[in-house]
Amino acid sequence: MKFTLTMIASALLLASHAADAREIRVPEAVATIQGAVDEAKPGDVVSVKMGTWNEAIDLKGKPITLLAREGDGKTVLDGTSLDESVLRCIQGEGPETIIDGFMIINGTGHRNLYGNRSAVGGGLLLLESSPTIRNCQFVNNNVNYNGGAIYMARNSQARFEKCSFKGNAAEKGGAIYSVQSKPVIADCMFDNNEGRYSGGAIYNADGTLALITGCRFESNRASYYGGGVYQYGSKGSLKNCIFDRNRATYKGGAVCNGYKGVSTLVDCKHLTNHDDVAGGAAPHVTAVAPKGACVLGDGSCLVASRQSCEDAAGSYRMDGSDCHGQVGQKITHGNDLNHDGRIDDRDALMLLLLWR
């Protein structure tokens, strides 16, 4: 009976907030986004005019909607020179806190957690919070530690819907780093993000349980493991996802299951031979790209796909060819740059990374 009365009281309170909800227009009514958030009450919509806004914004635990009045990249939150996450949800925000339609760029991250040398969450910092993020673009956010675009921790359960992540970078989790959290990532695009250690697009760590559906991973890269997704002591469910030209120098161009990492892949497509799954009970992924002899600029030769060869500025012979009989070319043990006993695409990728 007590529980029922509590539910009724909560419903009445929410209905009251909805009835009193208002739109606070920026800059027409309030000059700054943070000023409008400070003024907002539960249920309000902070509606932001198109343009570029150089602010670090704290949602302050409020169940409000932060809305880009004109979406599709026309309303930009720019983190240049802020030395802070562009957006912060660190006071228990729930699903009723909604961020919708913004382009978030150039964030360099929050520095209070681990210090100036270990900034996290260039675009968005989530601690003990579970907001809803829709139709947002996270572009060129770069931190010197973890979570180029997003850092989420402490049982955060954020939901990302129809968002895109492009050109973000970090040591771990070029786009998203999640630790001890439960993210839901639906119908999102991950393009050209970089993990300087591992997890080019996503790095899930230490008890994270991630649900990833309908997402596309394209041209993400990691210097070590998991060009698309890296699982460390975590579990991930990936359904109806597409992997295209993702790379890791050592293992798992698409997905790598590290220490106690588990990934379940259902109805996912792997479009190139780089998009493999490594570690754990990894499913077999058929290589679809043919390989041939690739002669590199220093005269060495290795067997690689045409794409890997061209990326490493080599000369590709033909599909099915090998290095035997190549005039002036010789395979040497020194060409096995990652020391895995094979001279192949991954050595070409490592060479490319060394040249950058």
Tally of distinct domains: 2
Order of strands, main sheet, comes to: 1-2-5-8-11-14-18-22-26-30
Reading off the top of the CATH hierarchy, the class of the largest domain is best stated as: Mainly Beta
CATH superfamily of the largest domain: Single-stranded right-handed beta-helix, Pectin lyase-like
Number of strands: 35
Using the alpha-carbon principal axes, give the shape: elongated
Number of helices: 4
| CATH architecture term of the largest domain | 3 Solenoid
Poorly predicted segments: 1-7, 327-333
The proportion of strand residues reads: 25-35%
Task: Compute the separation of the termini in Å.
Answer: 66 Å
- Helix residue percentage: 10-25%
Radius of gyration: 23 Å
Overall pLDDT metric: 88
Q: Summarize the main sheet.
A: 10 strands, parallel
Query: Structural class of the helices, strands and pairings?
Result: mainly beta
Keywords:
356 residues, mainly beta, Pectate Lyase C-like, 2 domains, ten-stranded parallel sheet, 4 helices, 12% helix, elongated, disordered N terminus
